[in-house]
Amino acid sequence: MKLHLKFTHVAPCAAFAATIGLAEPVYAQVSAPPPAAPVTFTLDGSAQLTHEKNSFLGLGQQFAPAAGYARSHTWLEAFVKPGMKAQTSLANGLTGYGGASLLATGTLGTDVFETKEKGRVLFEDAYLGLRGQAVGWNWDVSAGAQPYKLGHGFLLSAGAGNGFERGGAILAPRRAWGMTGIGRISSGPFMAEAFHLNPNELEFGDTGTRLWGLHGQWSPSEDGSVGLAHIRVSASAAPYPKAPVTIIENGREGLQTTDLIWRYEPRSGALAGLSLIGEAAWQRNSRIDMKAGGWGFELGYRLAQMPFMPRLSWSMRRFSGDDPGTADKLERFDPLFYDGGPQTWSSGGNGSFAFYNSNLVVHRVRAEFVLSQRDFVNLNWWKVDAAQANSPVQYGQAARLAIVDGSIGVVAGFPKRPLTQEIYAEYTRVLTSNLFVSTGVAGAFPGSGLKAVVSDARDWWGVFANLTIKY
Question: Which of 7, 65, 200, 389 is paired with 268 by a 20 to 30 Å CA distance?
């Protein structure tokens, strides 16, 4: 087992977010290294007990009192994922490969979304591919249900929905897209790919979204890379909220996004240990007069010669919100299918449930420590503000009557920008090369913007214990 092992999950979620080692590199390569044997079998599984107190900071009690949303929730959830991968050599130097897996998820008790006793057994992976070489270029084509991640997961990573009728909302193990078509070519430092993606959405919220894109990347060395991608949503019934409380039907359809991706992580020399990764995206949709933008970066440094090898990092990101003063335009950023785990682009451990990556300004400070070859700790602090006051943060969140510019009307969002501050601490113990245990605590504290609309805003606490197996 390598020290730079990364435990990940798709979000929004509150727990099991250990990140050990440097930020995940993104190299220009056609595919992962082939397995040692023609056929390999895998088994992943996890079980987690979670308790949340004052979930959603009092928003449920303030804006949906008739729903009787509970102040506290305790539940157990688990998943098991058996799978296999195979490859075979074909004529003319070609290699065929494929994979398949089943994923069983379940929730016992009532989770933070008040989903009770739910679970599903569904196919996760089911794909085939072919790779080879031609005129000095490596090429790879694949299709089927499989994971796909663009860059650092700023826009495209979580290809499947979790929780609700499927159970497993916190662990969020489903990430494979329902259907993909991916083609890549690479030569030396250059890589280019085209993709078509169909997300595996939840049954009750299936928007029929289909998207395609192009991505090019230049990696002059293992120390860094820069990439540029363009994504177009060809079909979608996903609605967009608009200030003050309007809903644009099928708002996502026709969305075009240009994404700049960068990574700098020198492996040697005076700057060894430094890490600077990030993405910046520009969005346009002429059909609904939409112009939006979002960006984020993480600057980190590992002090490898100090006791416990601390890695310190600061991350900042901004996602535009809709300006209530421009009735004929939409400026709300669409985060698409981002990786919202606390170790990536979330708005907090608990806060990632309440605030998605739109109309937000987020700062995160993290300290990671290697106590021993088996013991790891990471500490996090978030500050979350609204990018635009009196504008939707989520669909219809905090809708109310208010006086704005001397007139009474219905508005959504928060009158002041500060939303929350949050702390999150986690300890991970490696029991064996295949068995890990994690425990952690998260606390989110309401800011002046949230307190201005929630009369009984309370601190939101969560604790968890997790056991994970991986073969």
Answer: 7
